[in-house]
């Protein structure tokens, strides 16, 4: 296992980050394909095996079902061996609006107390806003409450989780957030426009959606007819397969790790076989410069179309 500095945060993390959503709640490519979460005992055992394999970075969230509770049980007594990242509750109300700034500050404080209790710890290494959109990033009171929590020693490093490239761009101009979790993969490479700036500012990048919730696997052979162009395009990446890198998941993961600005790659793991496969893919032998250029050229032409949540609503998944 290789380890990297998480930007200039002072935190060192494994190249693989264990994604905790699957162990805590029903999850899948779409709602109709969502599967039940693991039994607690099996999940704890898997977390221990991941740690034994060298994975020290674990990502969870207040809204990931029982994920925090299970991690708390798994790592009680060995807290100093792991780096825990969690995210606070969502801010937006059912009608899409935001509560007042005062309410938001209290929500953050309440949310982190819930996380501390569930995780059985008195601090969280990286605590993130779960979805920091453009409006949320402009709320000054959120910076105040995160600063208070850092001064109190409850948070080591402040971070955010974003979706859109413009959110990453705005976050970097703020100069406050030390970790950004963002989507980036073979098909959708828009976020890479800000990798260099993140490196310059010492901001650690944690990448998720590496496999597009399973689309960059054999699952791509069974897509809805409305996604035929997407399916056909995914198959173009076979040109980058080699004898050692002989499947799409290996290519997808190694592609992301080939970017120097990326500190860790978030992999959803809920089976021993997925853990073993992920570790096998991360060997420190990744894409060459020419292969990276080819991968860049092969990114999907209309990347804004790659909205899995909307596809699910449309019944395409």
UniProtKB/TrEMBL annotation:
Highest taxon above the source species: Bacteria
NADP-dependent oxidoreductase domain span: 27-297
InterPro entries noted in UniProt: AKR (IPR020471), AKR2_Oxidoreductase (IPR053135), NAD(P)_OxRdtase_dom_sf (IPR036812), NADP_OxRdtase_dom (IPR023210)
Gene3D superfamilies per the UniProt record, alphabetical: NADP-dependent oxidoreductase domain (3.20.20.100)
PANTHER family assigned: D-THREO-ALDOSE 1-DEHYDROGENASE, NADP-DEPENDENT OXIDOREDUCTASE DOMAIN-CONTAINING PROTEIN
The name this protein goes by in its record: Aldo/keto reductase
């Amino acid at each position: 296992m290789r380890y990297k500095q998480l930007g200039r945060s002072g935190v060192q993390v494994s190249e693989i980050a264990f994604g905790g959503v699957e162990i805590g709640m029903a999850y899948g490519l779409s709602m109709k394909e969502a599967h039940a979460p693991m039994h607690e005992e099996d999940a704890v055992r898997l977390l221990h095996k991941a740690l034994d394999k060298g994975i020290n970075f674990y990502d969870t969230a207040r809204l990931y079902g029982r994920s925090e509770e299970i991690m708390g049980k798994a790592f009680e007594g060995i807290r100093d061996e792991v780096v825990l990242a969690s995210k606070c509750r969502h801010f937006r109300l059912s009608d899409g609006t935001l509560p007042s700034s005062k309410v938001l500050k209290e929500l953050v404080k309440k949310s982190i107390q819930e996380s501390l209790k569930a995780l059985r710890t008195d601090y969280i290494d990286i605590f993130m806003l779960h979805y920091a959109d453009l409006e949320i990033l402009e709320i000054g009171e959120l910076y105040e409450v995160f600063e208070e929590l850092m001064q109190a020693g409850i948070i080591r490093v402040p971070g955010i989780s974003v979706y859109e490239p413009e959110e990453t761009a705005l976050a970097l101009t703020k100069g406050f957030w030390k970790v950004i979790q963002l989507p980036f993969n073979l098909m959708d490479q828009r976020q890479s426009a800000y990798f260099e700036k993140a490196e310059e500012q010492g901001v650690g990048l944690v990448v998720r959606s590496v496999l597009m919730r399973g689309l960059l696997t054999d699952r791509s052979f069974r897509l809805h007819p409305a996604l035929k162009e997407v399916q056909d395009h995914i198959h173009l990446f076979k040109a980058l397969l080699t004898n050692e890198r002989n499947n799409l998941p290996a290519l997808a993961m190694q592609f992301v790790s080939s970017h120097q600005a990326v500190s860790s790659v978030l992999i959803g793991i809920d089976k021993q076989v997925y853990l073993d496969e992920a570790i096998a893919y991360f060997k420190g032998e990744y894409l060459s410069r020419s292969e990276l250029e080819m991968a860049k050229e092969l990114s999907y032409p209309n990347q804004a179309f790659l909205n899995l949540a909307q596809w699910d609503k449309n019944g395409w998944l």
